[in-house]
Amino acid sequence: MVDILHKVGVRSSVDEVFKALTTADGLAGWWTTDTSGVGDTVGGRLEFRFGDLGGFDMKVVELVPDEKVLWEVIDGPEEWVGTHVGFDLSQSADYASVQFKHAGWKEPVMFMHHCSTKWAVFLMSLKAMIETGKGAPAPNDVKIDDFN
Amino acid sequence: MVDILHKVGVRSSVDEVFKALTTADGLAGWWTTDTSGVGDTVGGRLEFRFGDLGGFDMKVVELVPDEKVLWEVIDGPEEWVGTHVGFDLSQSADYASVQFKHAGWKEPVMFMHHCSTKWAVFLMSLKAMIETGKGAPAPNDVKIDDFN
């Protein structure tokens, strides 16, 4: 098993970040505009779509207000199904720290390399959305390679 | 041992990317302006500095023209020393694909999370440098958190 790890600091409160991770409106502002479902309840299902590229369905498996969000991927690309996507939040004086982990990849395939870079791009979009009011969710996301 | 993985596609030839990874001028255009040393010879030493934050010394351990660059970290932060930073290149019709691996971290510490995101930011700087003529090397790099 191999994991994708990231960290960004957002000049805001953890409360703002928690909202951006647990509401369809918040998620649509930085990951993909085509987001629907329930993110603020354990057991809720979130559906993220990326046009012709398909998408991911997540089940919310753990929530601790202002501290932790954990999803299990229940539908999507074969490499993603069964993996877990988590965000651990902590507050320092100026920043809400977002520690990210996409855990449980079976193999470090090329697609995992792509997704690692793309997660960084989307976490910078989350940071921008909260700090400036404008993220870069799909389909207006920053493209990184020939896949997307 | 845990690894940082990334991938970007650069609209260019692998030759252009190889130059950007093996010359001090090329490296100064996307990672840090304060780059010196020898990157185009196995056994060469490259010195990357980031002002007050310190820096890294790398030994070139493998070079295959237009295909592979591999460095060993020989000085820098404790967590980095002994790790390996590698770039595998391949050409498709429109893109030079850059598969990146920073391998051999002892533990997935918070600093590794930070470095993973920051590597993505710098690889996007490499892509921008080649595609647009202008990268964002330190000290004008995109800041991601309270560390840098």
Highlighted features:
homodimer; 148 residues; alpha+beta; Alpha-D-Glucose-1,6-Bisphosphate, Chain A, domain 4; 7-stranded antiparallel beta sheet; 3 helices; 7 strands; 25% helix; 36% strand; globular
Topology at a glance:
The structure is a homodimer of 148-residue chains.
Chain A lengths: L1 E9 L3 H9 L1 H5 L5 E4 L7 E5 L5 E10 L3 E8 L8 E8 L4 E10 L4 H23 L16
Antiparallel strand pairs in A: 1-7, 2-3, 3-4, 4-5, 5-6, 6-7
Query: Could you report the average pLDDT of chain A, rounded to the nearest whole number?
Result: 96
**Cα-to-Cα separation, first versus last residue of chain A:** 25 Å
Number of domains of chain A: 1
CATH superfamily of chain A: START domain
CATH class of chain A: Alpha Beta
CATH topology of chain A, which one? Alpha-D-Glucose-1,6-Bisphosphate, Chain A, domain 4
Unreliable spans of chain A are none
Number of helices of chain A: 3
Determine Rg of chain A (CA atoms, Å).
14 Å
Number of strands of chain A: 7
Portion of residues in beta strands of chain A equals 35-45%
* Helix residue percentage of chain A: 25-40%
**Oligomeric state of the chains present here:** homodimer
Specify the structural class of chain A.
alpha+beta
Can you walk me through this structure?
2 copies of one chain form a homodimer. Chain A is of the alpha+beta class. Helix content of chain A is 25%, strand content 36%. In chain A, strand 5 and strand 6 form a beta hairpin. The model of chain A has no long low-confidence stretch (mean pLDDT 96). At the A-B interface, strand 1, strand 7 and helix 3 of A face strand 1, strand 7 and helix 3 of B.
